[in-house]
Amino acid sequence: MEETVIKQSECPCGSLLPYVECCGVYHTQSRNAPTAETLMRSRYSAFVLQLGDYVLATWDKTTRPKTMDFADDQTVWTRLEILGCKKGLAKDEKGLVEFKAHYQLHDKEFILHELSRFVRRQGQWFYLDGTVKAIAKPKVETSLGLNAACACGSGKKFKRCCGKASHS
What we know:
Shape: globular
Strand content: 25-35%
Largest sheet: 4 strands, antiparallel
Strand order of the largest sheet: 1-2-3-4
Helix content: 10-25%
Mean pLDDT: 85
Structural class: alpha+beta
Low-confidence stretches: none
């Protein structure tokens, strides 16, 4: 997406605010996300916009992958639903955010349902890890191959990443 189009567009996180007034302020690192939910939304938008540096910078160093490569990623993220939050406010040190991220991959639609854990270190929120509750296929009955690249952009095979929970 061209930069001027992004600046004028509604934020991908679903807030209905312009991108530059919403997740854009976090992506430019002019501000830190004040809550775990805000960080979740900004990370989702970073996946939409393929901002690997931001995804890595907001991932806790204890669980962060070495790289984030979107070069071969064909995932098209279409919508984020926040289902609930537990803690994760400015005064908290930990938080949980449950969400569903809708996406398309190879002309098929999927929903990633995850419960993500966040930690706050020195006043800044970081994504720690998540438990995939389900990867649903709402409209097309097909499945990701276990050896296919994971749609989350981690660079791992599906079976070693988001597929862990679905075939355990």
